[in-house]
Known about the structure:
Bound molecules: zinc ion
Largest sheet: 7 strands, mixed
Helix content: 25-40%
Number of helices: 13
Radius of gyration: 21 Å
CATH architecture of the largest domain: Alpha-Beta Barrel
Shape: globular
Strand order of the largest sheet: 3-2-1-4-15-16-17
Amino acid sequence: MLKAIKCGMFFSAVDETVKNDVVVLIENNLIKEVKNASEAGDLSGYEVIDLSNKFVMPGLIDAHVHVNMNGEPDPMPGLALQTLGTTALKSAKNAETDLMAGFTTIRDEGATGFTDIAVRDAINQGIIIGPRMFCSGIAIGTTGGHCDSHYSPYIEEKMPFGQIIDSPDEGRKAARYTFKYGADQIKIMATGGVMSVGDEPGAPDVSYEEMKAIIDVATSRGRISSAHAHGAVGIKNAIKAGITSIEHGMMIDDEGLEMMAEYGTYFIPTIIAAYNIIQAGIAGGIPAEAVEKATLVLKNHEKNFKKAIALGINIGFGTDAATPYNKHGEQTREFGLMNMFGMEPVQTLLAATKVNAKLLKWENKVGSIEPGKLADIVAFDSNPIEDLKVMNNVSFVMKDGVVYKNK
Ligand SMILES: [Zn+2]
Protein backbone atom coordinates (compact mmCIF):
# COMPACT_ATOMS: atom_id res chain seq x y z
CA MET A 1 0.00 0.00 0.00
CA LEU A 2 1.50 3.32 -1.12
CA LYS A 3 0.49 6.67 0.33
CA ALA A 4 1.74 10.18 -0.41
CA ILE A 5 1.15 13.01 2.05
CA LYS A 6 1.29 16.53 0.60
CA CYS A 7 2.48 18.78 3.44
CA GLY A 8 1.99 22.57 3.32
CA MET A 9 4.27 23.14 6.32
CA PHE A 10 6.62 20.33 7.30
CA PHE A 11 8.51 19.84 10.58
CA SER A 12 10.57 16.64 10.49
CA ALA A 13 11.87 17.05 14.09
CA VAL A 14 15.33 16.12 12.82
CA ASP A 15 16.20 19.74 13.57
CA GLU A 16 14.34 23.01 14.24
CA THR A 17 13.50 23.92 10.66
CA VAL A 18 10.03 24.17 9.13
CA LYS A 19 9.90 23.62 5.36
CA ASN A 20 7.16 24.42 2.89
CA ASP A 21 5.67 22.10 0.26
CA VAL A 22 7.08 18.69 1.08
CA VAL A 23 5.77 15.27 0.05
CA VAL A 24 6.17 12.25 2.34
CA LEU A 25 6.01 8.89 0.57
CA ILE A 26 4.86 5.93 2.65
CA GLU A 27 4.98 2.24 1.86
CA ASN A 28 2.82 0.13 4.19
CA ASN A 29 3.83 1.25 7.69
CA LEU A 30 7.17 2.84 6.79
CA ILE A 31 8.29 6.25 5.59
CA LYS A 32 9.99 5.64 2.25
CA GLU A 33 11.03 9.10 1.08
CA VAL A 34 10.73 12.77 1.99
CA LYS A 35 10.90 15.09 -1.05
CA ASN A 36 10.31 18.68 -2.07
CA ALA A 37 6.88 18.83 -3.74
CA SER A 38 8.45 20.08 -6.97
CA GLU A 39 10.60 16.92 -7.15
CA ALA A 40 7.95 14.42 -6.09
CA GLY A 41 7.31 13.27 -9.66
CA ASP A 42 4.46 11.00 -10.70
CA LEU A 43 2.19 10.09 -7.78
CA SER A 44 -0.06 7.73 -9.72
CA GLY A 45 -0.23 4.48 -7.83
CA TYR A 46 -0.21 6.43 -4.56
CA GLU A 47 -3.19 7.24 -2.40
CA VAL A 48 -2.68 11.00 -2.08
CA ILE A 49 -3.50 12.63 1.28
CA ASP A 50 -3.73 16.37 0.84
CA LEU A 51 -2.47 18.25 3.91
CA SER A 52 -1.22 21.18 1.84
CA ASN A 53 -2.96 23.66 4.17
CA LYS A 54 -1.68 21.99 7.36
CA PHE A 55 1.40 21.81 9.60
CA VAL A 56 2.71 18.25 9.48
CA MET A 57 5.01 16.73 12.10
CA PRO A 58 5.93 13.36 13.66
CA GLY A 59 3.39 11.69 15.95
CA LEU A 60 3.63 12.99 19.51
CA ILE A 61 5.13 10.97 22.35
CA ASP A 62 3.91 11.41 25.93
CA ALA A 63 6.57 9.92 28.19
CA HIS A 64 4.40 9.88 31.29
CA VAL A 65 0.78 8.74 31.38
CA HIS A 66 -1.26 6.26 33.40
CA VAL A 67 -3.90 4.57 31.26
CA ASN A 68 -5.61 3.19 34.39
CA MET A 69 -7.04 6.54 35.42
CA ASN A 70 -8.59 9.57 33.76
CA GLY A 71 -8.59 12.69 35.89
CA GLU A 72 -10.76 11.43 38.75
CA PRO A 73 -10.41 13.79 41.76
CA ASP A 74 -9.39 10.89 44.02
CA PRO A 75 -8.83 7.78 41.86
CA MET A 76 -7.62 5.20 44.37
CA PRO A 77 -10.98 4.13 45.85
CA GLY A 78 -12.36 3.66 42.32
CA LEU A 79 -9.50 1.40 41.33
CA ALA A 80 -10.02 -0.71 44.44
CA LEU A 81 -13.74 -1.16 43.81
CA GLN A 82 -13.59 -2.37 40.21
CA THR A 83 -12.25 -5.60 38.74
CA LEU A 84 -8.97 -5.66 36.85
CA GLY A 85 -11.03 -6.41 33.74
CA THR A 86 -12.94 -3.14 34.15
CA THR A 87 -9.66 -1.31 34.75
CA ALA A 88 -8.21 -2.79 31.56
CA LEU A 89 -11.26 -1.82 29.48
CA LYS A 90 -11.25 1.75 30.80
CA SER A 91 -7.49 1.86 30.17
CA ALA A 92 -8.03 0.83 26.55
CA LYS A 93 -10.43 3.74 26.11
CA ASN A 94 -7.94 6.19 27.68
CA ALA A 95 -5.15 4.96 25.40
CA GLU A 96 -7.38 5.41 22.34
CA THR A 97 -8.20 8.96 23.48
CA ASP A 98 -4.46 9.73 23.64
CA LEU A 99 -4.01 8.48 20.07
CA MET A 100 -6.88 10.62 18.82
CA ALA A 101 -5.23 13.67 20.46
CA GLY A 102 -2.07 13.07 18.41
CA PHE A 103 -0.05 10.86 20.75
CA THR A 104 1.03 7.94 18.60
CA THR A 105 3.34 6.71 21.37
CA ILE A 106 2.79 6.76 25.13
CA ARG A 107 4.88 5.51 28.03
CA ASP A 108 2.73 4.19 30.86
CA GLU A 109 4.36 4.97 34.19
CA GLY A 110 2.70 2.34 36.33
CA ALA A 111 -0.53 0.36 36.25
CA THR A 112 -2.33 -2.04 38.53
CA GLY A 113 -2.35 -5.77 37.73
CA PHE A 114 -0.29 -5.42 34.50
CA THR A 115 -3.37 -3.93 32.84
CA ASP A 116 -1.13 -1.54 30.84
CA ILE A 117 0.55 -4.57 29.30
CA ALA A 118 -2.82 -6.14 28.48
CA VAL A 119 -3.80 -2.97 26.60
CA ARG A 120 -0.41 -2.70 24.85
CA ASP A 121 -0.62 -6.28 23.63
CA ALA A 122 -4.23 -5.92 22.46
CA ILE A 123 -3.24 -2.82 20.46
CA ASN A 124 -0.21 -4.57 18.96
CA GLN A 125 -2.35 -7.55 18.00
CA GLY A 126 -4.84 -5.27 16.23
CA ILE A 127 -7.69 -6.17 18.61
CA ILE A 128 -8.24 -2.57 19.68
CA ILE A 129 -7.12 0.86 18.49
CA GLY A 130 -4.47 2.81 20.39
CA PRO A 131 -0.99 4.28 20.40
CA ARG A 132 2.29 2.41 20.66
CA MET A 133 2.68 1.69 24.34
CA PHE A 134 5.89 1.45 26.35
CA CYS A 135 4.93 -0.08 29.69
CA SER A 136 6.18 -0.20 33.27
CA GLY A 137 3.80 -2.87 34.58
CA ILE A 138 3.41 -2.52 38.34
CA ALA A 139 5.55 0.25 39.82
CA ILE A 140 7.98 -0.51 42.65
CA GLY A 141 8.01 1.38 45.96
CA THR A 142 8.39 0.95 49.70
CA THR A 143 6.03 0.28 52.60
CA GLY A 144 4.04 3.47 53.13
CA GLY A 145 5.48 5.05 49.97
CA HIS A 146 3.86 6.57 46.89
CA CYS A 147 2.55 3.32 45.36
CA ASP A 148 1.61 1.54 48.59
CA SER A 149 -2.20 1.52 48.44
CA HIS A 150 -3.42 3.12 51.61
CA TYR A 151 -6.53 1.23 52.60
CA SER A 152 -7.41 -0.94 55.55
CA PRO A 153 -4.42 -3.22 56.24
CA TYR A 154 -6.60 -6.25 55.37
CA ILE A 155 -7.52 -4.84 51.94
CA GLU A 156 -3.94 -3.79 51.21
CA GLU A 157 -2.78 -7.38 51.19
CA LYS A 158 -5.07 -8.13 48.26
CA MET A 159 -5.02 -4.89 46.27
CA PRO A 160 -1.54 -3.40 45.98
CA PHE A 161 -1.26 -0.54 43.49
CA GLY A 162 2.50 -1.01 43.49
CA GLN A 163 4.98 -3.73 44.41
CA ILE A 164 6.22 -3.10 47.92
CA ILE A 165 9.88 -3.72 48.66
CA ASP A 166 11.95 -2.95 51.75
CA SER A 167 15.41 -4.26 50.85
CA PRO A 168 17.70 -4.52 47.80
CA ASP A 169 16.89 -8.24 47.50
CA GLU A 170 13.18 -7.55 47.43
CA GLY A 171 13.82 -4.82 44.87
CA ARG A 172 15.74 -7.18 42.62
CA LYS A 173 12.98 -9.75 42.83
CA ALA A 174 10.29 -7.17 42.06
CA ALA A 175 12.24 -5.93 39.02
CA ARG A 176 12.63 -9.46 37.66
CA TYR A 177 8.94 -10.15 38.29
CA THR A 178 8.04 -6.97 36.39
CA PHE A 179 10.04 -8.04 33.34
CA LYS A 180 8.73 -11.59 33.60
CA TYR A 181 5.22 -10.31 32.87
CA GLY A 182 6.22 -8.17 29.93
CA ALA A 183 7.24 -4.70 31.12
CA ASP A 184 9.37 -2.58 28.79
CA GLN A 185 10.97 -0.71 31.66
CA ILE A 186 10.98 -0.35 35.46
CA LYS A 187 9.22 2.44 37.34
CA ILE A 188 10.44 3.27 40.84
CA MET A 189 8.58 5.49 43.30
CA ALA A 190 11.71 7.07 44.77
CA THR A 191 10.04 9.67 46.99
CA GLY A 192 6.66 10.57 48.42
CA GLY A 193 3.94 11.89 46.16
CA VAL A 194 1.14 14.37 45.82
CA MET A 195 -1.88 12.09 45.61
CA SER A 196 -0.73 9.34 47.98
CA VAL A 197 -1.84 9.56 51.60
CA GLY A 198 0.51 10.08 54.51
CA ASP A 199 3.84 10.45 52.72
CA GLU A 200 6.01 13.50 52.07
CA PRO A 201 6.80 14.52 48.47
CA GLY A 202 10.21 15.75 49.60
CA ALA A 203 11.26 12.68 51.57
CA PRO A 204 13.21 9.78 50.04
CA ASP A 205 11.39 6.43 50.19
CA VAL A 206 13.41 3.92 48.18
CA SER A 207 17.05 3.91 49.34
CA TYR A 208 20.08 4.23 47.06
CA GLU A 209 20.94 0.54 47.65
CA GLU A 210 17.41 -0.56 46.80
CA MET A 211 17.34 1.54 43.63
CA LYS A 212 20.77 0.30 42.57
CA ALA A 213 19.61 -3.32 42.87
CA ILE A 214 16.44 -2.61 40.85
CA ILE A 215 18.15 -0.54 38.15
CA ASP A 216 20.94 -3.12 37.74
CA VAL A 217 18.28 -5.68 36.77
CA ALA A 218 16.97 -3.28 34.09
CA THR A 219 20.40 -2.25 32.82
CA SER A 220 21.62 -5.84 32.54
CA ARG A 221 18.71 -6.47 30.15
CA GLY A 222 19.34 -3.31 28.12
CA ARG A 223 16.18 -1.76 29.54
CA ILE A 224 15.56 1.72 30.90
CA SER A 225 14.13 2.87 34.21
CA SER A 226 12.33 5.92 35.52
CA ALA A 227 11.84 7.37 38.98
CA HIS A 228 8.94 9.31 40.37
CA ALA A 229 10.93 11.76 42.49
CA HIS A 230 10.15 15.17 44.00
CA GLY A 231 12.70 15.68 46.80
CA ALA A 232 16.36 16.45 46.16
CA VAL A 233 17.81 13.53 48.16
CA GLY A 234 15.65 10.93 46.41
CA ILE A 235 16.45 12.48 43.01
CA LYS A 236 20.21 12.35 43.64
CA ASN A 237 20.02 8.77 44.90
CA ALA A 238 18.18 7.79 41.73
CA ILE A 239 20.66 9.56 39.44
CA LYS A 240 23.63 7.95 41.21
CA ALA A 241 21.95 4.55 40.98
CA GLY A 242 21.72 4.99 37.18
CA ILE A 243 18.11 5.96 36.56
CA THR A 244 17.23 6.91 32.95
CA SER A 245 14.64 9.59 33.72
CA ILE A 246 13.49 11.65 36.68
CA GLU A 247 9.73 12.22 36.66
CA HIS A 248 8.31 15.47 38.12
CA GLY A 249 11.50 16.51 39.98
CA MET A 250 9.62 19.41 41.50
CA MET A 251 11.82 19.93 44.56
CA ILE A 252 15.18 19.37 42.92
CA ASP A 253 18.16 21.50 44.04
CA ASP A 254 21.14 22.94 42.10
CA GLU A 255 23.35 19.94 42.84
CA GLY A 256 20.65 17.60 41.55
CA LEU A 257 20.32 19.62 38.34
CA GLU A 258 24.07 19.59 37.80
CA MET A 259 24.12 15.83 38.35
CA MET A 260 21.39 15.35 35.74
CA ALA A 261 23.46 17.32 33.24
CA GLU A 262 26.57 15.31 34.10
CA TYR A 263 24.92 11.86 34.01
CA GLY A 264 22.75 12.63 30.95
CA THR A 265 19.60 11.86 32.96
CA TYR A 266 16.32 12.81 31.30
CA PHE A 267 13.95 15.20 33.06
CA ILE A 268 10.18 14.81 32.60
CA PRO A 269 8.65 17.86 34.32
CA THR A 270 4.86 17.06 34.14
CA ILE A 271 3.96 20.68 34.97
CA ILE A 272 0.31 20.13 34.06
CA ALA A 273 -0.20 17.54 36.83
CA ALA A 274 0.51 19.95 39.68
CA TYR A 275 -1.05 22.87 37.79
CA ASN A 276 -4.42 21.12 37.35
CA ILE A 277 -4.60 19.99 40.98
CA ILE A 278 -4.07 23.57 42.17
CA GLN A 279 -6.51 25.01 39.60
CA ALA A 280 -9.32 22.64 40.62
CA GLY A 281 -8.47 22.85 44.34
CA ILE A 282 -10.50 21.61 47.26
CA ALA A 283 -13.66 22.94 45.53
CA GLY A 284 -13.00 20.36 42.82
CA GLY A 285 -13.13 17.55 45.35
CA ILE A 286 -9.37 17.04 45.61
CA PRO A 287 -8.23 16.04 49.11
CA ALA A 288 -6.85 19.06 51.00
CA GLU A 289 -3.56 17.22 51.61
CA ALA A 290 -3.04 16.81 47.87
CA VAL A 291 -3.79 20.48 47.09
CA GLU A 292 -1.35 21.54 49.78
CA LYS A 293 1.36 19.22 48.46
CA ALA A 294 0.86 20.33 44.85
CA THR A 295 1.15 23.99 45.82
CA LEU A 296 4.36 23.23 47.68
CA VAL A 297 5.97 21.33 44.81
CA LEU A 298 5.02 23.71 41.98
CA LYS A 299 6.52 26.69 43.78
CA ASN A 300 10.11 25.98 42.85
CA HIS A 301 9.39 24.08 39.67
CA GLU A 302 9.43 27.07 37.32
CA LYS A 303 12.75 28.32 38.66
CA ASN A 304 14.35 24.87 38.38
CA PHE A 305 12.88 24.26 34.92
CA LYS A 306 14.61 27.41 33.67
CA LYS A 307 17.89 26.24 35.22
CA ALA A 308 17.49 22.83 33.57
CA ILE A 309 17.14 24.52 30.17
CA ALA A 310 20.24 26.63 30.83
CA LEU A 311 22.24 23.53 31.83
CA GLY A 312 21.26 21.73 28.60
CA ILE A 313 19.53 18.86 30.44
CA ASN A 314 17.53 16.47 28.24
CA ILE A 315 14.00 17.65 28.95
CA GLY A 316 11.32 15.30 27.66
CA PHE A 317 7.58 15.80 27.35
CA GLY A 318 5.41 14.02 29.91
CA THR A 319 2.12 14.91 31.51
CA ASP A 320 1.05 12.33 34.09
CA ALA A 321 -2.25 12.24 32.17
CA ALA A 322 -4.61 10.47 34.59
CA THR A 323 -4.01 12.56 37.71
CA PRO A 324 -6.85 14.76 39.05
CA TYR A 325 -8.44 16.89 36.29
CA ASN A 326 -5.55 15.90 34.00
CA LYS A 327 -7.56 13.98 31.41
CA HIS A 328 -6.32 11.85 28.58
CA GLY A 329 -6.57 13.73 25.31
CA GLU A 330 -6.19 17.11 27.02
CA GLN A 331 -2.52 16.78 27.95
CA THR A 332 -1.44 18.86 24.96
CA ARG A 333 -1.85 21.88 27.25
CA GLU A 334 1.54 20.90 28.68
CA PHE A 335 3.13 22.46 25.55
CA GLY A 336 1.83 25.89 26.59
CA LEU A 337 2.88 25.37 30.20
CA MET A 338 6.44 24.40 29.20
CA ASN A 339 6.56 27.55 27.12
CA MET A 340 5.15 29.60 30.03
CA PHE A 341 7.99 28.23 32.17
CA GLY A 342 10.58 29.41 29.64
CA MET A 343 11.03 26.81 26.89
CA GLU A 344 10.98 27.94 23.24
CA PRO A 345 7.92 26.59 21.38
CA VAL A 346 10.02 24.63 18.88
CA GLN A 347 11.90 22.98 21.75
CA THR A 348 8.62 21.83 23.29
CA LEU A 349 7.81 20.09 19.98
CA LEU A 350 11.25 18.44 19.92
CA ALA A 351 10.78 17.32 23.55
CA ALA A 352 7.62 15.42 22.53
CA THR A 353 9.25 13.84 19.48
CA LYS A 354 13.03 13.55 19.05
CA VAL A 355 14.00 13.76 22.75
CA ASN A 356 11.35 11.31 23.96
CA ALA A 357 12.18 8.82 21.19
CA LYS A 358 15.80 8.82 22.38
CA LEU A 359 14.71 8.42 26.00
CA LEU A 360 12.79 5.25 25.06
CA LYS A 361 15.69 4.06 22.88
CA TRP A 362 13.16 4.02 20.02
CA GLU A 363 14.95 6.73 18.03
CA ASN A 364 15.43 4.41 15.06
CA LYS A 365 11.65 3.81 14.91
CA VAL A 366 9.81 6.99 15.91
CA GLY A 367 10.29 10.65 16.83
CA SER A 368 11.04 12.14 13.40
CA ILE A 369 9.86 11.96 9.79
CA GLU A 370 12.74 10.32 7.97
CA PRO A 371 13.08 7.43 5.51
CA GLY A 372 13.02 4.08 7.31
CA LYS A 373 11.02 5.28 10.33
CA LEU A 374 7.51 4.14 11.16
CA ALA A 375 4.80 6.24 9.55
CA ASP A 376 3.53 7.96 12.71
CA ILE A 377 2.48 11.40 11.49
CA VAL A 378 0.15 14.11 12.79
CA ALA A 379 -1.00 17.49 11.48
CA PHE A 380 -2.43 20.74 12.80
CA ASP A 381 -4.40 23.56 11.13
CA SER A 382 -1.64 26.14 11.59
CA ASN A 383 1.96 26.49 12.78
CA PRO A 384 2.15 25.69 16.52
CA ILE A 385 5.55 27.35 16.78
CA GLU A 386 3.65 30.63 16.37
CA ASP A 387 0.88 29.66 18.80
CA LEU A 388 1.10 26.46 20.88
CA LYS A 389 -2.67 26.47 21.53
CA VAL A 390 -2.95 24.86 18.09
CA MET A 391 -1.57 21.68 19.67
CA ASN A 392 -4.91 21.21 21.48
CA ASN A 393 -6.68 20.44 18.18
CA VAL A 394 -4.94 17.82 16.11
CA SER A 395 -6.58 17.49 12.71
CA PHE A 396 -4.78 14.44 11.29
CA VAL A 397 -3.47 11.29 12.97
CA MET A 398 -1.62 8.46 11.24
CA LYS A 399 -0.01 5.57 13.11
CA ASP A 400 1.88 2.78 11.34
CA GLY A 401 0.68 4.15 8.00
CA VAL A 402 -3.01 3.90 8.98
CA VAL A 403 -5.10 7.08 9.15
CA TYR A 404 -7.15 7.35 12.37
CA LYS A 405 -8.27 10.97 12.02
CA ASN A 406 -8.49 13.38 9.09
CA LYS A 407 -10.77 16.37 9.52
ZN1 LIG B 1 2.71 9.36 37.33
